[in-house]
UniProtKB/TrEMBL annotation:
This is 3-methyladenine DNA glycosylase/8-oxoguanine DNA glycosylase. It comes from Promicromonospora citrea. One of its GO terms (molecular function) is alkylated DNA binding. The keyword DNA repair applies. GO terms for biological process: base-excision repair, AP site formation; DNA alkylation repair. One of its GO terms (cellular component) is cytoplasm. Keywords: DNA damage, DNA repair. It comes from the Bacteria.
Amino acid sequence: MLTVRHTSPRPLDVALTLGPLGHGAADPTFHRAPDGAVWRTSLLRSGPVTQRFVPAGPREVTVQLWGDGAHEAADALPTLLGEDDDASGFTPPPQVREAHRRAVGIRMPRSDRVMEALVPAVLEQRVQTVTAHRAWRRLVRRYGSPAPGPASGLFVVPDARTWARIPVWEWHEAGVDPGRARTVARCALVAPRLEEAAAMPPAEARARLERVQGVGVWTSAEVAQRAFGDADAVSVGDFHLPGAVGWALAGERTDDEGMLRLLAPYAPHRHRVVRLLVLGGRARPPARGPRTPIVDHRRF
């Protein structure tokens, strides 16, 4: 085990900062323990790693690391914890000022792991979140590897070669339709090129991702928010987001164009505004009509 104590020059809320890297309450790669610790696994160039983040004060966190990737992960801790996230000059809209005040230690995390952000984003395309999270859990537990260290029940994501070789019937059993399964496989086949995007300017990085058939602007934005720490990446094409942002900022539902117009004054912090809207409970327009039924692709 390697133990590192990270001290930030400004307030740091580890749970809020790392929260977007998890995918559902039962994500086998991410766990928030009752004692306040945050557990996370990753597959780095040097190997797998398990990280346990224990807050030690408003600006400090103790991180325990296990696995062959421990030293590489330790070197990347400042980036992961959003030390490069520059919120200077950000003036929040009135609707999120209270959330901004309360979430003083929130940062935009940057994992620099493209496939780890890309695969769950593809699984979340055009389906209910609960369905995508269920597929992610099943596939990671079946094709990933047990996490190094003492964390029972945690797994490390499969490598790109394994994602590319998952047979069609396993995708079916996980409830993933052929279109999304093919997109993951195409991404896995060019994974080294996609991982290079982490070192590119945001626009170039997203353009590279979108060259893969099946990866559009919504998916590339979801990856940019997590892998690149992009505080300005807006998830255009989301089923619920435009209406939620419109309701929160203008008191009425809107579409993608209207959402971008409302968020434009806050560039380059548009995603930051969205996160604060969600944290503050403002992104919840009144429900109208029946819920969209959950489609279980395992039945087809």
